[in-house]
Design goal:
By secondary structure, this protein is α/β, with parallel strands linked by helices. About 30% of the residues lie in helices and about 15% in strands. It has an eight-stranded mixed beta sheet. Strands 1-2 form a two-stranded antiparallel sheet. A hairpin with a 5-residue loop joins β1 and β2. The protein is globular.
């Protein structure tokens, strides 16, 4: 199904490419190799395997790599790279700052999700919920099936997304779970795996992470209803409530703010699912909820949501504009075209339009 969807999108995009020039910037993204191999995050270097040896971790793969799509377009002649490469200026501080900003934008989508365990009599007690250091056996099995258990002290945040967890001093625990495929990384901030300190009775260190996540998974075994806002946080848009039932089944419901209620209407009804399949459902709901929350948060600031790939492309264009050889060209275009779109400027210009690197307007 994923291959069919991507092929359909590809067919939709292909007629829109200009034959006289298009630049595509691509970068390898991480994928999980078999256990006998290393955990690789690039084509040029490998990192030590940070996974903890657990049989519950499963390899996951997506349908098509973006690199493969670009390779086919390039060799079939659909993309014609006919412009001369622009040398990187030496000693240009403005350009170097842009390069550092580019490095801060991951070449894959990132999401962080909080997880808390609610025991008997804790449904309305924030401090008690956050202070839990363990849960039931069913809760432990649920965590094991979420993804891959990793050691935080072996993680390099430049290659693996940890969502702000401390990977040097161990202030946020030694381990956590992550889930990812070739284009997405999701890290789980799990309260029971973070250390509780006697000097921090209100667990502000745990709340620093979980209270600032858009989505929180609540494993509720208290027997009482759990309310949105029990763990106070400015950015907590969605709670995914798991209530274990008899016969190894669970009731899954969501609580969300009015901002995202309409977007998440398709998952608003309570669903009953087995222990075996609950993690797949919860991860999908968490991913959809995180995306919806990101979109709503950006709209509050009158900014449209853009994927990390588009943000990287925009940053590359900004860096290119800082190169002196391009400034005169851009100024000439601005004077001649006024308020015309990028596409119209390229068509009306008397010179090669291969400088147009942002082809998103054609989609």
């Amino acid at each position: 199904m994923r291959v069919i969807v991507q092929r359909t999108l590809l067919q939709r995009w292909l007629p829109c490419f200009h034959s006289n020039g298009c630049h595509v910037f691509t970068e390898m993204v991480p994928f999980l190799k078999p256990r006998s191999q290393t955990f690789s995050y690039s084509t040029t270097s490998t990192l030590p395997d940070v996974r903890v040896n657990t049989p519950a971790a499963k390899d996951t793969r997506a349908g098509i790599l973006p690199n493969f799509v670009f390779l086919q377009l390039y060799h079939m002649g659909i993309l014609h790279v006919n412009s001369v490469p622009i040398p990187i200026p030496e000693g240009n501080e403005e350009f170097n700052r842009g390069l550092k900003n580019l490095e801060r934008i991951a070449p894959y989508e990132t999401h962080k999700v909080g997880i808390v365990y609610v025991g008997k009599g804790q449904a309305s007690n924030e401090a008690a919920i956050l202070s839990n250091t363990y849960g039931s056996q069913r809760y432990s099995q649920f965590l094991k099936k979420l993804g891959t258990l990793i050691s935080l002290d072996k993680c390099d945040p430049r290659d693996m997304y940890v969502g702000g967890l401390d990977h040097e001093q161990g202030a946020d625990g030694k381990y956590t779970y992550i889930w990812h495929d070739e284009v997405i990384q999701m890290v789980f901030h799990i309260a029971t795996m973070m250390p509780s300190k006697e000097s921090d009775a209100r667990c502000t260190n745990k709340k620093l992470h979980i209270g600032n996540n858009y989505v929180t998974i609540v494993y509720n075994e208290s027997g009482e209803p759990y309310s949105l806002g029990t763990i106070k946080g400015k950015f907590n848009y969605v709670n995914i409530i798991i209530e274990p039932l008899d016969q190894v089944s669970n009731a899954v419901t969501i609580q969300c703010k009015d901002d995202v209620k309409q977007i998440l209407e398709h998952v608003s009804t309570t669903k009953v699912i087995s222990d075996e399949n609950i993690t797949d459902l919860v991860k999908q709901i968490a991913l959809h909820s995180s995306m919806a929350s990101l979109i709503c948060e950006r709209l509050k600031h009158n900014v449209f949501y853009a994927s990390n790939w588009l943000e990287r492309l925009r940053q590359i264009r900004r860096m290119k504009d800082k190169v002196p050889v391009n400034r005169k060209l851009n100024e000439k275009l601005s004077q001649r075209s006024g308020e015309k779109s990028v596409k119209e400027r390229a068509i009306n210009a008397d010179f090669d339009s291969s400088w147009v690197t942002d082809f998103t307007e054609y989609c």
